[in-house]
C-alpha cells in the first residue's frame, strides 16, 4: 500500500475517503503518513493534510526553476475550470434548495437532480450555457444528456465517484474543497506568473 499511495500522490490525485478509501485509511495511521512524508521529502515534496476535508495531497516544498513551469501549467489548467465549476455549484445550490456548498462525502442523486432541472426553466437555460463551455462542452441537446455530460466529466476529473458500479448516485470528493484553496494560493503567490481570471460573483464567493 505504501508504493501505491506514493504513486497516487505523485500523480496529483487527492486522497480522501470517497475517492481513495484504502489509501485514505492507510494514511490515517500516523506512522504510515510519516513514512510517506519522509519519502516525499527526499523528492522535495510534502504530504499535506487538509483537515476540514479529511484529504491528503502532495505539495512542493518550494517553487524554483526546476518545477516552476510544471506547477504553472498544473494550476493554469485548474484555473481554467474555475468559472464553470463555480457556476455548476451555484446551479446545484439552486436545484437542491440548499444553502450549504458541496463538500467531500456529500451525496448527489442524478435522477433527483434531473427532476429539479426539468421543473425549472431557469436552471435548464443555465445548464445549456454551461454545456457550451469547457470542460462540460457537448453538442447534445436533450436535458438528460447535458446533465449526464456534466456528471460524467466531474467523475472523470475526480470530483465525483459513484456509490457503486452502475449507480446513478454519487459522492463528492475532497477536490471540491481543495480547488478554491489551491486557486487562492495561486492568487497570493508572487512566484508564479499566471494570467488573471475573472473574479467570482458575490454569490459564488460564498463557496470559497
Fold and architecture overview:
The chain has two domains: 60 residues, Arc Repressor Mutant, subunit A (Orthogonal Bundle), CATH 1.10.10; 126 residues. The longest helix has 15 residues. It contains ten helices and five strands, in the order H-H-H-E-E-H-H-E-H-H-H-E-E-H-H. It starts with a helix and ends with a helix. With 208 residues, it is mainly alpha-helical.
Biggest beta sheet summary: 3 strands, antiparallel
Number of helices: 10
- Domains, number: 2
- Flag low-confidence runs: 194-208
Rounded to the nearest angstrom, the distance between the terminal CA atoms is 33 Å
The chain-level mean pLDDT equals: 84
Specify the overall morphology. Answer: globular
> Helix coverage percent of residues?
40-55%
The side-by-side strand order for the widest beta sheet comes to 3-5-4
Note the beta-strand portion: 5-15%
Mind sketching the topology for me?
Blueprint: H1 2-10, H2 21-27, H3 30-41, E1 45-50, E2 55-60, H4 68-80, H5 82-96, E3 107-109, H6 110-118, H7 121-130, H8 143-156, E4 160-162, E5 169-172, H9 175-188, H10 202-205
Antiparallel strand pairs: 1-2, 3-5, 4-5
Helix pairs in contact: 5-7, 6-8
Amino acid at each position: 500500500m505504501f508504493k501505491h499511495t506514493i504513486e497516487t500522490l505523485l500523480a496529483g490525485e487527492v486522497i480522501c475517503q470517497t475517492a481513495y478509501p484504502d489509501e485514505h485509511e492507510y494514511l490515517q495511521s500516523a506512522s504510515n503518513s510519516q513514512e510517506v512524508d519522509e519519502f516525499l521529502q527526499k523528492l522535495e515534496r510534502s504530504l499535506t493534510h487538509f483537515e476540514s476535508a479529511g484529504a491528503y495531497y502532495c505539495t512542493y516544498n518550494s517553487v524554483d526553476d526546476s518545477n516552476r513551469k510544471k506547477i504553472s501549467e498544473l494550476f493554469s489548467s485548474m484555473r481554467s475550470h474555475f468559472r464553470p465549476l463555480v457556476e455548476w455549484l451555484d446551479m446545484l445550490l439552486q436545484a437542491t434548495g440548499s444553502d450549504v456548498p458541496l463538500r467531500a462525502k456529500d451525496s448527489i442523486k442524478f435522477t433527483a437532480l434531473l427532476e429539479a432541472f426539468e421543473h425549472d426553466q431557469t436552471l435548464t437555460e443555465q445548464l445549456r450555457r454551461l454545456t457550451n463551455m469547457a470542460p462540460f462542452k457537448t453538442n447534445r441537446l436533450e436535458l438528460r444528456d447535458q446533465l449526464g455530460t456534466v456528471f460524467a466529466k466531474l467523475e472523470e476529473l475526480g470530483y465525483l465517484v459513484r456509490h457503486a458500479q452502475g449507480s446513478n448516485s454519487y459522492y463528492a470528493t475532497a477536490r471540491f474543497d481543495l480547488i478554491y484553496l489551491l486557486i487562492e494560493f495561486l492568487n497570493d503567490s508572487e512566484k508564479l506568473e499566471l494570467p488573471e481570471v475573472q473574479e467570482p460573483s458575490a454569490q459564488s464567493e460564498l463557496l470559497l
